[in-house]
Write a structure and sequence with these properties.
The chain is rod-shaped. By secondary structure, the protein is of the alpha+beta class. It has eight helices and 21 strands.
Length: about 425
Amino acid sequence: MKKRTIIIGVICLLVVVVGAFLYRYRVELKNEATRIGLFKEAAENKQTAGHQQHGAPPAPPETKEASGEAKQAEETPTVEIPTDKQQLIGVRTVKAAIKPLNRVIRTVGRIEYDERNLATANTKIEGWIEKLHVDYTGRYVQKGEPLAEIYSPELVATQQEFLNILRWAAQGPSAKDERTAMLLVKDAQTMLEAAKERLRLWDISDDQIKKIETTGKPIRTLTVYSPASGYVLQKMAVQGMRVMSGEKLFDVVDLSSVWIVADIYEYELPLIKLGQTARIGLSYFPGKEFSSQVDYVYPALASETRTAKVRFTIPNPEGVLKPQMFTNVEIKINLGNRLIVPSEAVIDTGERQIVYVDKGEGFFEPREVTVGLKADGVVEVTGGIRAGEKVASSANFLIDSEAQLKGVTPLKIKKK
């Protein structure tokens, strides 16, 4: 009996203890709910319902935009890096600012001869080279200087025909019939002019034709003259060789001006425009620079290097610039005012670009941004931050590691 009484007492005691614990837990839960405003909102709803029952107009609900902004403000992700830790890991911040953005393209160019100054010496008759006046490549020749002499049986026969017409024309006035003499003179003059024109088309000059008339003897060889002043670039003519009409004998190039042909990568090509100024230097002339402008952009890309050719023209009066020399080309391009940050401030994950915005008091917000052009040490930001906001420019990878450990991720940019 005594044992039973003890058991009942213990059970009653346990019931009292559990009841007290539940009461205390309920009070604490109510206090917490009151602190975060749940009961206040319920009370307001109840009060609103009471007013509606008494005919009072309902309170205007919050707009979706205001609630969305509040929600976004509440959900802005941040990672905390205390000030002492920032100094320890070397965190530096810089303001995003709108500044002039200049892009410098550096590349290598080659000196090539100006194709507009290239001339070819050839012949319009068939024959054999009897004498070479220019017998090696690279020699400098003046315009009109003799290059070679060609013997052509066809040319000799044409000159002989011309001499026969001259004799016939001289015999015309000796005819007894005056009318016949006039017809003979007229026909002779026509044939004589035709023979002269034929000789001119074969590059026989008027002085040479006059010499043939005076001496009464044909010229044995035709002299080929240089069409321009310059250097002999190619020499196909050889002593004694047979040449055909139209065959090229010499290439002469004037090096008083030369081309610089530079290679520009495919991704840099949209920045290149005609008329842009470039600085050109050569290792052969240290300290000396040439200035030129882009005068032509070639229309095709090289499939092996994915580069396009850009051309510059440089005067070369002293002849110090030789074809196939290499040059250093630097093109400075003004891209205007852009919102820029240091390149180190942007973390490229491969899928998106992230910066950490300094919100003050040791908090950093990871924010996704869109980037544009890149220049020397800076990058253009086209969306995600505004001018004047501070971003971490160093140790941002350590901040990113801390954010990932804490599960803090940037909000995605809403595409328009």
